[in-house]
Amino acid sequence: MPDRLDLPVLSQKDYAALVKELTASIPRYSDNWTDYNFSDPGTTLLQLLAWLGDITLYRIDTVPNVLYLNFAYWLVGAAAEALETLVEDLESEVLKNAQGNTLYLGDDPTPLDPPRLKLAQYLLAIQNGAPLDLTTLRQNAIAFWATPYRAVSEDDFILLTRQVTADPTTYQRYVIERVVARARQPAMEVLPITMYPIGYSVSVQPAKGDGPALQVLSATIQSGTLLNVSFDYQTLCPAVAQYLNPRRLLGTPVTVAPPTYNPVTLDIHLAVLPQADPAAVLNAVFNAVVAFVSPTTGGADGTGWPYGRGLTNDDVLSVVAQVPGIDHSQPIHVNAQTLFGYTVGESTVGVTSLLGPGYELGLPRIWTATITASSDTWTLQVGVHARLGIDTLLPYPGI
Predict the structure, then answer these.
(1) What angle do CA 318, 323, 328 make, to 5 degrees?
(2) Are strands 213-221 and 200-206 parallel, antiparallel or unpaired?
(3) Residue 384 Cα distances to 273, 300, 333, angstroms
(4) Lateral strand order in the sheet of 176-184
(5) Can you give the pTM of this predicted structure?
(6) How high is the pLDDT of residue 6?
């Protein structure tokens, strides 16, 4: 749908242009008329015709305000005398839970048809004496016109789902920043994604032992923030489902659920430059990786991590290598492991709190991270290569 409503310019010529064009066309119709001075009666007649043409073109190209209002009344679907009743009906149609209680995602209830309500409220304000601002009227009309009511395609479901929390009074924790819509049998699956901040417990300690390791960063996700996110989705998902229900096609079931987050454990070894602060480099690496896997602003293009794509070692390496202060003459070792859930009857000691839901890939979420800053990593690199050559029986001199 277009986001602008530009009217064509019909009056391309003014009075001076019409006089010039009429005067230039005289030789085409008469060879005897050679006096084009203002004192010539024929020139006076041409000027009169040009004046009439200028007035006519101006009126053709001018749309009176009442015509804009009539078009807005037609667009909103109510005559002027029925507008107040329409606004009352639209204001009473709000999101409610299964028990019939109003759902509050912000300071005010969420209407079921926000663009139409906003346009109707503006027209009612004009009826009650507010000044008419054509720019605001056009913005409200175009916003209503460009927003589909019926959800058919995946793009329709995405646009309408984000509209649920588009009101600026919505609590920040409920704002839908991204939507994943997938046509899957037997239903259309809609996954709203919020940007509720996830907290981490991060500590940087000196490395133990006499090796090349300098400092170690340890990070663990805070379980309290996960509970808050879970509670938020318990409110948000039913609200989205109710909002989409009257807009879906008959016979098209819609499932609204939280996105799947896959826990990821990280183990990174890197070398820092002599003049760099190891603690600052470690924190910068951790923050860069967390930002890279963000579901709303991460990924290679900054629009959110691709849903259903797992996090690989190369992905993490591409981000870590860009952090200042790293000694690139030394190798960077990355081990990123995605943890999945286990079937009933199975258990693993020490990782039961890290289990992810099922075996479906969704969005990666850093669960634990251990990042070690060293002055030299070649010892580790040589050890890995030697072990690889022995275990895989690769051709290796002396074996």
Answers:
(1) 75
(2) antiparallel
(3) 23, 30, 10
(4) 176-184, 187-194, 254-256
(5) 0.70
(6) 61
DSSP for residue 111: B
Q: Which residues pair with 96 in a beta bridge?
A: 102
Which segments of 264-320 does DSSP mark as H helices, in order?
A: 278-292, 313-320
Alpha-carbon torsion, ordered 221, 224, 228, 234, to 10 deg: 90
In a 3-state reduction of DSSP, which class is residue 202?
strand
Q: How far apart are CA 266 and CA 284, in angstroms?
A: 15
Domain boundaries, the chain: 15-61, 199-222+260-391
List, for residues 276-312, the tens digit of each pLDDT value. 999 999 999 999 999 999 999 999 999 999 999 999 9
The whole-angstrom separation of Cα 34 and Cα 228 is 89
User: Which residue do the tokens 């027209």 mark?
Assistant: 123
Residue with tokens 């230039």: 24
Rounded to a whole number, what is the largest CA-CA distance in the chain? Answer: 114
Question: In angstroms, rounded to a whole number, what is the distance separating the alpha carbons of residues 261 and 198?
Answer: 12
> Strand pairing partners for 267?
335, 370
pLDDT, one tens digit per residue, over 141-181 is 988 888 888 999 999 999 999 989 887 777 777 889 999 99
